[in-house]
């Protein structure tokens, strides 16, 4: 009889984590289910379903006859995710709380709780993703402390765990895992790696998990849920009224309650205007939100961005990038956007320039640029600078030619 491995499974009360726990038990592991509470609904005027989610997770654990724990990271979530989210909005950026929540809460605090407090051999989550390791390799890992230098020594970890897209490409969640640490990834298993969502639902139905099957997919801000965003954010940030300004002629089109309630590319609902206008830029010093009259306006398209220090999951940085200072791969900054071919250039401070093969709509500061090489998710960096828009470049070309700059003559970008 071999050693019975202890795996702690993060239980959300949803179908994916429930089936993950079931599959781990079927593999013969000693499984403990843990529900994380990360948002205090007592402070909130909105509706929060964490009590129901916790009850649903407990019910699954009872059906599987495995231990159940509940842990609270309300303070940690507030200080390490939510307060940072508010600061980013105040700077005019649009943050991604789901990526930061995985980095700071699930794959840091929860991971440490699973390994150090509960003494688990590994942690498991219901993400649709896979790694380069077999389960037995995961159980044999030992903790590796974080590097003290800018980059990890590339020989410090002989066989780094690599993060790959899951079998279900539509549900693939490597995008949201692109900031997690190597030490956490090396001791994490993803039971749904080779499964599709439809097959997971089939397993749940056969296991009589009806109470989680009928639940809607979770949407909205990580752990906070689906809200009216403008109303929600204005509970935490003072209104900062300003003008909607046309990018083409500088005309004031209307007023707004705060630039932080808008992200680039979204429709700007301007009172009194029947036609749709779209947010193309923001000036937080004046409070102006610049808008354009079409969803594919050239002012929404760029092909170059710069990130902050890039987080490389396996190799830091990849050998190919070190060798030639430039690397070809694929890029996305939204979960389900098609992967776009790009060229990456490494800067001395660990940040990168990313140049896309064609202009991309609504590249947004504060979002994460996630890079892929084939099936592998290489990591991500926060977008901190944007290159010029197609609209700006065309105005510049027109000036060089001495031609009058007529916005209506600017070519439509490749979408």
Segments where pLDDT lies below 50 for 5+ residues? 410-415
**Structure summary, number of beta strands:** 19
Rg result? 23 Å
In spatial order, strands of the major sheet run 13-17-16-15-18-19
Number of helices: 11
Q: Write down the overall mean pLDDT.
A: 90
Strand content: 25-35%
Distance between the termini: 59 Å
Instruction: Name the structural class.
Output: alpha+beta
Q: Main sheet, how many strands, which sense, barrel?
A: 6 strands, antiparallel, barrel
SSE succession: EHEHEHHEEHEHEHHHEEEEEEEHEEEEEH
Which outline best applies?
globular
Relative helix content: 25-40%
Family: Belongs to the MnmA/TRMU family.
GO biological process, one term: tRNA wobble position uridine thiolation
Subcellular location: Mitochondrion
Protein name: Mitochondrial tRNA-specific 2-thiouridylase 1
List strands and helices in order, with pairings:
Blueprint: E1 6-11, H1 15-26, E2 30-37, H2 50-64, E3 68-72, H3 74-90, H4 97-117, E4 122-124, E5 129-131, H5 135-139, E6 163-165, H6 182-185, E7 188-189, H7 197-206, H8 210-213, H9 229-233, E8 242-246, E9 252-256, E10 267-268, E11 277-283, E12 288-292, E13 301-307, E14 311-312, H10 319-324, E15 326-332, E16 340-346, E17 352-361, E18 368-373, E19 376-386, H11 390-401
Catalytic activity: 5-taurinomethyluridine(34) in tRNA + S-sulfanyl-L-cysteinyl-[protein] + AH2 + ATP = 5-taurinomethyl-2-thiouridine(34) in tRNA + L-cysteinyl-[protein] + A + AMP + diphosphate + H(+)
Family: Belongs to the MnmA/TRMU family.
EC number: 2.8.1.14
């Amino acid at each position: 009889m071999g050693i019975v491995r202890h795996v702690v499974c993060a239980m959300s009360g949803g179908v994916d984590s429930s089936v993950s726990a079931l599959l781990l038990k079927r593999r013969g592991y000693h499984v403990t289910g843990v529900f994380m509470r990360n948002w205090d609904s007592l402070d909130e005027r909105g509706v929060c379903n964490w009590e129901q989610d916790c009850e649903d997770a407990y019910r699954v654990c009872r059906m599987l006859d495995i231990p159940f724990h509940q842990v609270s990271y309300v303070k940690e979530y507030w200080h390490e995710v939510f307060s940072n989210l508010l600061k980013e909005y105040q700077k005019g950026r649009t943050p991604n709380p789901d990526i930061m929540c995985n980095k700071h809460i699930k794959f840091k605090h929860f991971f440490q709780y699973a390994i150090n407090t509960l003494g688990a051999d590994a942690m498991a989550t219901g993400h649709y993703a896979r790694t380069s390791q077999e389960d037995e390799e995961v159980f044999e890992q030992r903790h590796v402390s974080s590097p003290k230098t800018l980059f990890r020594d590339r020989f410090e970890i002989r066989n780094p765990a690599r993060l790959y897209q899951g079998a279900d490409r539509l549900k693939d969640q490597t995008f949201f895992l692109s900031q997690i640490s190597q030490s956490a990834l090396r001791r994490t298993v993803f039971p749904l790696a080779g499964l599709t969502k439809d097959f997971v639902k089939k397993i749940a139905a056969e296991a009589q998990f009806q109470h989680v099957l009928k639940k809607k997919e979770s949407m909205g801000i990580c752990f906070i849920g689906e809200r009216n965003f403008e109303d929600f954010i204005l509970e935490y940030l003072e209104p900062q009224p300003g003008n909607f300004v046309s990018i083409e002629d500088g005309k004031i089109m209307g007023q707004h309650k705060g630039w932080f309630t808008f992200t680039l590319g979204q429709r700007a609902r301007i009172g009194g205007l029947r036609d749709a206008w779209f947010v193309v830029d923001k000036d937080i010093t004046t409070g102006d939100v610049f808008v354009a009259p079409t969803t594919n306006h050239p002012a929404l398209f760029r092909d170059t961005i710069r990130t902050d220090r890039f987080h490389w999951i396996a190799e830091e940085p990849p050998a190919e990038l070190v060798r030639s200072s430039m690397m070809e791969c694929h890029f996305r900054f939204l979960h389900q956007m098609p992967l776009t071919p790009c060229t990456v250039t490494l800067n001395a401070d660990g940040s990168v320039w990313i140049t896309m093969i064609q202009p991309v709509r609504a590249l947004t500061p504060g979002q994460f640029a996630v890079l892929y090489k084939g099936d592998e998710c290489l990591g991500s960096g926060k977008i901190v600078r944007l290159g010029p828009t197609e609209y700006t470049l065309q105005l510049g070309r027109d000036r060089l030619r001495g031609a009058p700059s007529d916005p209506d003559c600017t070519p439509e970008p490749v979408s």
